[in-house]
Amino acid sequence: GSREIVEYLLENHGMDSNIISNTEIHPVADFLNNKQHYVESMSIDNQLTPLIWAAYLGRANIVNLLLSHSADVNAKPYCELTALHVVAQYGFLEIADVLIQTNKLNGNARDEYGRTALHYAIHFDQMLIVQLLMKHSKDLALDLNAVDNDENSALHFALIRNCTEVAELLIEEPSVEVNARNNVNEVPLHLAVEHGNTAIVELLLSRKASIDVLNWKNFTPLKKAAASGQTNIVKMLIANGANIKTTGMETLALAAFSGKLELCKYLLELMNYAQIPEEVLWKAIKSHNVEVIKLLVRYRFDVIDARISGCTTLHVSVLSANIDIVRTLLDHGAVVDSKDENEETPLMVACCSGHVAIAKILLEKSANPNAQDIHQWTPLHFASYSGHLAVVQLLLDVGAEVNATESKQRTPLHWAATRGREDIVKLLLSRSANQNLQDSDQNTPFHLAIFRQLIDGIAELFINERTDLTLRNKKGWTPLHAAVHYEP
To answer: Looking at the keywords, is Cytoplasm present (predicted)?
Structure first.
């Protein structure tokens, strides 16, 4: 058998059990259990010792034999991996026990990433290996708080994997540091909260885990719980002393963004319905949760028209195309013609985006169809430019000025022609749009369509409407001059 071959090579040919090369003893691993393909996948420049080969293949008898011939149980020939790392990864319990029984094993050996065998066992869900290592932690002088290059301890690893059983085992060990911070300043409590693991959160709190630690994003465990809408964990953290006095509104904003109504109610009650900052309502709008928005505006009406980045909440809700939120804000007193930093109204936003249903709601609430922004654009300019035929029709039906001019003296027809919107050009002309109006450069809509070489169907429309073809722009060009100049 394979054991006899190894024994023969060791005893009769003086083979070194720790040699790292392609000698007669290494191919024995190739022979074991038809695992040639596995061996080849592990052949990395022949940098593994016979012991690690045997460990990788799960052959306890060969491991025993090699150890009896003084194989180095702690050899780290490749990537700083020991035989214990290998068996921890693959879950070879018998071999792990054999290695431990040598009484020479360094259980704290680290690979090139700083990870111990315990890290490996946790990462690869080898619970039996974890239990074995924990059982012999004193014999091995195992450092249960050893951290890898990212400063993650075994407990961090268990919680990153959301492995409750391992986490419980570690937390219940008095020597395990439950407040260790990794390289992004996260303690185990952050990770337990991230996975919504209520049982582990409770266990960590019983070990006096730090509650108000800020991670690299300036999130405490409480903020993390609020952001993911974990009501029970939020309550648990606050009951155990999480700071709500100075972070309450930020926590509420995160809860609003999560869209969890029950959580928002709880926090509002906890803070005695204190003054709600604008950010909270904005977060709720972004979550598209109408019930949360209703809850918030019920307690503070003035936030409805508050501005962030120049916009009101109504502008943002229109942009999000959420009809229910738009109705809720309007029903609670939002100013329908409020203007942003560019003096654009919510109706302009709806027209530009093509949200015809929302535009209709705003008009029903008496939105001004002829309001102007800082460039004198009206809602009809926006709809014509953007090519939203249904919105153009709606605006014309409620009395939008078809020949309104903006700062460059262009009408909606100018912009529809410039953009090649044949359907809108046709509609505007049918509603008495003046095709002979000239902009600040004395261009008619027909000039602009020719400049953009968008004249196929549009030219016929303008000619049929008896457009004055003698009108000249500032260059002295008639539409015919322009057509000749821009002939492909």
So the answer is: no
Could you give the domains of the chain?
Answer: 1-143 (1.25.40.20), 145-242 (1.25.40.20), 403-488 (1.25.40.20)
**How far are the Cα atoms of 18, 79, 203, 261, 282 from residue 402, in angstroms, in the given order?**
91, 75, 69, 45, 35
- How many other β-carbons are positioned within 10 Å of the β-carbon of residue 117? 31
Q: Judge contact between 210 and 189, C-beta under 8 A.
A: yes
Cβ partners under 8 Å of residue 218, min gap 6: none
Query: In this predicted structure, what is the pLDDT of residue 16?
Result: 47
Predicted local confidence at residue 31, as pLDDT: 41
The pTM (predicted TM-score) of the whole model is 0.71
One-letter amino acid of 86? V
407, amino acid identity: S
Helix axes 379-386, 389-397, angle to 10 degrees: 150
Which single residue is written with the structure tokens 């034999």? 65
Q: Is 114 exposed, middle or buried (0-12, 13-18, 19+ CB in 10 A)?
A: middle
Dist CA 218 CA 353 (whole Å):
36
By the 8 A CB rule, do 271 and 300 touch?
Answer: no
Concatenate the DSSP letters of all residues of 299-352 into one string: H-GGGTT-EETTEEHHHHHHHTT-HHHHHHHHHTT--TT---TT---HHHHHHH
pLDDT at 302 over 70: no
Q: What is the mean pLDDT of the chain?
A: 87
Q: Give the C-alpha separation, 194 to 186, whole Å.
A: 11
Closest of 126, 128, 127, 134 to residue 107, by C-alpha: 134
Residue entry with tokens 């261009």: 443
Q: Over the stretch 328-338, which tens digit does the pLDDT of each residue have?
A: 889 888 899 99
End-to-end Cα, the chain, rounded Å:
86
Please write the tens of the pLDDT for every residue from 456-471: 788 889 888 888 999 9
Q: Which amino acid is at 94?
A: E
The answer to whether the beta carbons of residues 314 and 308 sit under 8 Å apart is no
Report the distance separating Cα 22 and Cα 29, nearest Å. Answer: 11
The conformation of residue 32, written as its DSSP 8-state character, comes to: G
The per-residue pLDDT for 305 is 58
